Amino acid sequence: MRHAQIGGCDRQALLSGAVIAYPTEGVWGLGCSPASEQAVMRVLRMKQRSVKQGLILVAGSIDQFAPYFGGLNEDQIQQLNASWPGPVTFLVPDQGVSPDFIRGDHATVALRVSAHPVVQSLCQMLGGPMVSTSANRSGEPAALSESEVAEQFATEVDFIISGPLGGQTGPSEIIDLATGQVLRPQGAR
DSSP letters along 58-79, please? Predict the structure, then answer.
C-alpha cells in the first residue's frame, strides 16, 4: 500500500486491477475500475460482501454515464441532472451495459455523480466511472479518516489517495429512479 496524491496512482494501475481507498463526500471509499473483474472481486473480498448485492459506480460528470441512460424518459434525465453532482445514488434500469459482477442480482445499476474533487479527478484520470463502495467490512462502520482506512486495509489496498472528506454525514442517499423509493436515507449507516 502506498499513500499518494491523485497523481500518485495512474490510469494504467487502475486499468490493471489496482484497488484504491479515497475520500468521498461523507465517508472513505474503496474503488477500482469496473472493467477489471479481478479488482472488483478483490474489493468484494475485502468488504466480505456478496457479489449478489451489487456495487455503486461513481462518475466525475453526468456525461460519463451516458451509456447507462438508454431507455430513460425525459423526466428521469431531468431528475438526474437536478440531483448531480451530489451525494445521491440512483438505481437506474440496466440496459445491458453493466456486467453482473457490478449489478449483482439486480435489474438496476447504482449510479452517482460525485461533487468531491478527488473523486472527480480520479474518474477524469480513469476516463469514466469507477466502482465506489464504503471503506469498511460488511456490517462495520465506514472509515471516516485516512488512518482508519490504513488500520483496516493497509495490506489490501494498493493506494490510499489523500484528501479530506467532503462535509456530508455518512454514505450517499440511494433512490430507485423508477419508483422514487428512498432505499437508504442520506447519512444512514
Answer: EESSGGGGGGG-TT--HHHHHH
CATH of the domain at 36: 3.90.870.10
Q: Cα–Cα distance between 24 and 181 in angstroms, integer?
A: 24
Residues 80-111 have pLDDT tens digits of 999 999 999 999 999 899 999 999 999 999 99
Backbone angles phi, psi at 125, to 5 degrees: -60, -40
The domain containing residue 168 runs over which residues? 2-184
Q: Taking Cα atoms as reference points, which of 65, 58, 117 lies closest to residue 89?
A: 58
Which are the contacts of 180, defined by CB distance < 8 A and separation ≥ 6?
A: none
Residues 62-71 pLDDT 10s: 999 999 999 8
- As given in the structure block, the three cell numbers for residue 44 are 468484494
- The grid cell for 133 is 463502495
Reported pTM = 0.91
Residue at 164 is within a domain: yes
Distance CA 19, CA 128 (A): 16
DSSP string, 107-149: SEEEEEE---HHHHHHHHHHTS-EEEEESS-TTSPPP-SHHHH
